[in-house]
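A reminder from the course coordinator: this example appears on the midterm review sheet, so study it carefully.

Given structure:
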């Protein structure tokens, strides 16, 4: 569905990197915290509450959760379903109820990537395709707001509201097909870098944080990168930064290297989540009470890590899956 490098395998040779080793053995998760992870189990949209799976789609169609939000005790999820065909359709799940998001006529495909609730308003970022290109959009209470003219391919991957302003982050190709990392504030675009991609956003204390990847023009290599406002920090060559969270002035980033090894960073310090012997990704990060939670997958098995300790969400004999989002409540 997406075409950015986050979703395409790269073929560069694996390299050695000094990391801080963390425990990889499983143990009982903290029962005082409620850990919500969401994604897909056997190609069906699902979420897990402290490891117990709840299917959001129990039909014959492919579906997946891409974004998760917990608000006033209610769990909200967004993603897509296929309805049995090749095209996807933006979907919103609230307390298990399936809600299809409104779409323009002649929409061939759509998806919802991120959700944010502010007051009584529901904001959902995503995309639609009425021509050959994907078009970045967001919904406010079901009303579509277009962010681009659809002339070039674009993606909206994250949404947030701060100070009454609506922020959407993603990327758009230019006329030469080069990806430009950008965000939109109330529909007005701001460019961060090119070539570059943004996959996640976090806003706190009037500072904007973004996670993604960019080409470092000094050495000509792509890096997993995060931005604080307009300042870029490169984290890992040939890596992808997929998620970002800020707590007590500490910056936490999740990501992976060549879809082979999952990591997270705390203030630019790298920690490995997997050993690189099996394909793995880290897709979402959440930090609370000095604990760090990361959701992802290893060899197509959904899981989350708490402080580097792994908790499989699907056993090997229970089918494949992926965890794309994580939210924790104490």
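Designed residues:
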């Amino acid at each position: 569905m997406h075409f950015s490098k986050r979703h395409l395998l790269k073929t560069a040779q694996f390299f050695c990197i000094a990391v801080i080793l963390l425990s990889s053995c499983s143990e009982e998760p903290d029962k005082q915290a409620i850990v919500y992870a969401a994604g897909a189990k056997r190609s069906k949209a699902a979420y897990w509450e402290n490891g117990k799976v709840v299917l959001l789609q129990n039909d014959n169609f492919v579906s997946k959760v891409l974004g998760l939000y917990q608000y006033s005790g209610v769990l909200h999820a967004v993603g897509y379903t296929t309805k049995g065909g090749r095209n996807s359709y933006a979907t919103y799940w609230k307390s298990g109820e399936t809600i299809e998001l409104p779409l323009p006529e002649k929409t061939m495909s759509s998806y919802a990537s991120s959700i944010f609730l502010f007051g009584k308003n529901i904001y959902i970022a995503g995309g639609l395709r009425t021509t050959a290109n994907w078009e970045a959009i967001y919904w406010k209470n079901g009303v579509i707001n277009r962010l681009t003219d659809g002339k070039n391919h674009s993606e909206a991957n994250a949404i947030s509201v701060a100070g009454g302003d609506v922020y959407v982050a993603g990327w758009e190709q230019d006329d030469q097909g080069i990806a430009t990392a950008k965000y939109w504030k109330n529909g007005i675009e701001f460019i961060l870098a090119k070539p570059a991609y943004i996959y996640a956003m976090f806003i706190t204390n009037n500072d904007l944080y973004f996670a993604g990847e960019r080409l470092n023009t000094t050495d000509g290599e792509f890096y997993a990168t995060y931005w604080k406002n307009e300042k870029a920090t490169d984290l890992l060559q040939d890596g992808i930064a997929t998620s970002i969270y800020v707590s007590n002035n500490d910056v936490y980033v999740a990501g992976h290297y060549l879809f082979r090894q999952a990591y997270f960073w705390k203030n630019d310090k790298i920690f490995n989540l997997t050993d690189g012997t099996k394909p793995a990704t880290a897709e979402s990060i959440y930090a609370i009470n000095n604990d760090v939670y990361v959701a992802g997958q290893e060899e197509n098995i959904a899981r989350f890590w708490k402080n580097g300790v792994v908790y499989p969400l699907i056993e090997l004999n229970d089918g494949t899956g992926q965890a794309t989002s994580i939210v924790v409540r104490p």
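Residues 71 and 119 are 10 Å apart (CA to CA). The first strand starts at residue 34 and ends at 41.
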